[in-house]
């Protein structure tokens, strides 16, 4: 045994590691809650937050489960889609979902074309 090991009792070493572990858990919890709050914001605000995060955070934080909760929505299969109004691709007119009610089946496809 070295003289330093004799001076520091094992219980003090254990408390030191417990403090370090507690600090890491607290930091992880704060980052996870912060990411969840960012996911609840508008896509533009969320994109701003994500542009500042390092890529390693995607592997360390529970990104996918948080995303599924934050952006899951309340609609279930078979529910009517909420009414919305969008401009056409060429900006020549507007289309409202409720205008198709009863006329023919409508398929909504959501995705990213970037």
Question: Secondary-structure map with pairings?
Answer:
Elements: H1 3-7, H2 10-39, H3 43-52, H4 56-60, H5 63-70, E1 85-87, E2 94-96
Antiparallel strand pairs: 1-2
Helix pairs in contact: 2-5
Describe this structure in words.
Strands 1-2 form a two-stranded antiparallel sheet. The chain has a domain at 3-73. The chain contains five helices and two strands. Strand 1 (85-87) and strand 2 (94-96) form a beta hairpin. By secondary structure, it is mainly alpha-helical.
Order of helices and strands: HHHHHEE
Biggest sheet statistics: 2 strands, antiparallel
Which overall shape is indicated by the principal axes computed on the Cα atoms?
elongated
User: Termini, distance in Å?
Assistant: 63 Å
Count of helical regions: 5
Radius of gyration: 25 Å
**Strands, total number:** 2
The overall pLDDT, averaged over residues, is: 85
Approximate helicity band: 40-55%
| Strand order in the largest sheet | 1-2
Poorly predicted spans: none
Strand fraction: 5-15%
Class by alpha and beta content: mainly alpha
């Amino acid at each position: 045994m070295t003289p330093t090991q004799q001076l520091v009792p094992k219980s003090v070493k254990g408390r030191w590691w417990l403090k370090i572990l507690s600090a890491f858990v607290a930091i992880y919890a704060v980052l996870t809650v912060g990411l969840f709050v960012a996911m609840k914001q508008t896509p533009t605000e969320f994109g701003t937050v994500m542009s500042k995060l390092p890529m390693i955070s995607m592997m360390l934080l529970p990104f996918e489960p948080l995303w599924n909760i934050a952006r899951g929505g309340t609609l279930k299969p078979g529910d009517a889609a909420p009414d919305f109004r969008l401009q056409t691709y060429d900006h020549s007119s507007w289309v409202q979902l409720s205008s198709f009610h009863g006329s023919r089946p409508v398929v909504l496809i959501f995705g990213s074309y970037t």
